[in-house]
UniProtKB/TrEMBL annotation:
Carbamoyl phosphate binds at residues 54-57, 81, 105, 132-135, 266-267, 311. GO terms for molecular function: amino acid binding; ornithine carbamoyltransferase activity. It is found in: Cytoplasm. L-ornithine binds at residues 164, 225, 229-230. Reversibly catalyzes the transfer of the carbamoyl group from carbamoyl phosphate (CP) to the N(epsilon) atom of ornithine (ORN) to produce L-citrulline. It comes from Streptococcus macacae NCTC 11558. Residues 151-321 form the Aspartate/ornithine carbamoyltransferase Asp/Orn-binding domain. This is Ornithine carbamoyltransferase.
Amino acid sequence: MTRNKSFLKEIDHSKDDLLELIEQALWFKKLKKERTKHNYLEGLNIALIFEKTSTRTRSAFTVAGQDLGMNVTYLASDDIQLGKKESVIDTAKVLGSMFDGIEYRGFKQESAEFLAAYSGVPVWNGLTDDWHPTQMIADFMTIKELFGRLEGLTLVYLGDGRNNVASSLLVTSAILGINVMIIAPEELQPARSIVRIAKEHQTGGSIYITDDVSAVKNADILYTDVWVSMGEKVDFKDRIDLLLPYQINSNLLAQVTNPNAVVLHCLPAFHDTNTEIGKQIYDQYGYKELEITDEVFQQHSSSIFQEAENRLHSIKAIMYHSLKNL
Ligand code: CP
Ligand code: NVA
């Protein structure tokens, strides 16, 4: 496998590397279900830095680190000097002298890259404005579990085609040689630079970007994400108006030819009013559900929560690969 010990973005890794991580994640899932101890990295220390909020990624890094026998330290970005009183580079040097690995979730991709370059230890990107690579291993692991294969499948992403998850899905599908389609209004279609990156790393399959929702008929996997990402400063109402035609709902699902098509969502999802923001949107604009209707979310909750659980097993595989030869 690659000599690249950090996990910063998908294009740093080959198709074989990504497939190996998926297999390793499936193996760790089996060990966990059997309750077979796998504290292979006992005594190591890792730091988790979160500049943005998180439930899945933070929990997955914490439990995966502990299951592997490591000591896990959470460094809330408000409590450390990072970026405010101390540069990312100086912080990287300090953390690298004390920890064996660092998870970083934040805004700039550059910060993740600097941490990796100057800490001298593996750095794992837990999401930046640009990419969400650890999510990808969980997602394609889930697809492998659900279909028994990856080859020949078509993944259709609907919604904000410019966000981190859309970019990661586009590029990862291309690397893995899976057909990928982004259905989004023109304003929110992937940037040309991202499509170019995907094409440069494509090993097979097709890439198709359109604003035509009827293209969804080809989907084996339907995927969506929130319409406004963390840190984005946009008018919520404008975004809703733009993306409502791209909502995953029962009418849209009825157009899909494959009766065994699955729905995935990286979560969190706005499918009801049981959240502060969901309630606020309902009170202000009258929408009870955004990127996915509650009906579809509940119908497909088994695959969606399987995907969430797989964050644990896949992050474990990613950290194990980075640190196993220490
Ligand atoms: N999917 C995902 O990254 O979830 P969190 O934001 O809760 O970590
Ligand atoms: N695109 C979303 C993903 C959350 C996991 C965000 O960045 O907020």
